[in-house]
Design goal:
The chain is an alpha+beta fold and 213 residues long. The chain has one domain. Helix content is 53%, strand content 18%. It contains seven helices and six strands. It has a four-stranded mixed β-sheet with strand order 2-5-1-6.
Length: 213
């Protein structure tokens, strides 16, 4: 009897271990694929004071206006990154000039790299937490709250209050993902999809997966 019980415990443990490995592998692959499909913008304020937070949004608006003029016709993430890399100094000049025009003397630091982001909703699209390629703009000491959006596919101009992402933006993202991956970030009505998204968030938040390059 004891031998049978011991065998049941061992088999149960092995089944749990196998299921956990499969779940982590699934979440890792999904996280990496989603991260590989988007390029984000990340603006960090000098501090959390009202003045610095207001300035952050003014700088953001200036950068978005320029970004839209040079990236609106991009058809891939790599194309968007390439254009931004070529115009990196221009982004820095626009941010610096905007800061000066508003009476501040903060420095600006701009980097294109791989950074950590929390879970974020863009209308009816939800991106899980993880590491994403992004253009990071640090204002002054960069100790204030963040603002972020997606440069490609172009979700920075989404009216969040409407809860709707333009079909063109969805199509660009859908082309880069599998059917299940796209459903994972766009279908919040399916209970099975909701569970998988929560599973992905759990493994990311516990540090079991990072999708870090």
């Amino acid at each position: 009897m004891k031998k049978n019980l011991k065998m049941v415990i061992i088999l149960t443990f092995l089944l749990f271990l196998y299921s956990s490995i499969c779940a982590i592998s699934y979440a890792q692959n999904i996280s990496s694929d989603i991260a590989d499909s988007v390029f984000r913008l990340h603006v960090i304020a000098n501090s959390d004071s009202k003045e610095d937070q207001d300035l952050k949004y003014i700088v953001r608006d200036s950068l978005l206006a320029y970004m839209n003029s040079i990236c609106k016709d991009c058809k891939s993430k790599q194309e968007a990154i390439s254009i931004v890399e070529k115009n990196k100094n221009k982004f820095e000049d626009i941010a610096t000039n905007t800061i000066r025009e508003n009476g501040y003397s903060y420095s600006v630091k701009i980097n294109i790299g791989h950074f950590e982001f929390p879970t974020k909703n863009y209308g009816d699209i939800s991106l899980p937490a993880g590491y994403y390629d992004a253009l990071r703009v640090e204002i002054g000491e960069a100790k204030g709250q963040n603002w972020w959006c997606v440069m490609f596919p172009p979700l920075c101009f989404v009216d969040i209050s409407s809860g709707i992402v333009p079909d063109e933006s969805k199509e660009l993202m859908e082309d880069s993902l599998t059917e299940e991956e796209f459903a994972l970030i766009s279908d919040s009505s399916d209970k099975k999809i909701q569970f998988k998204f929560k599973l992905l968030e759990f493994f990311t938040n516990t540090g079991l997966i990072t999708a870090k390059k």
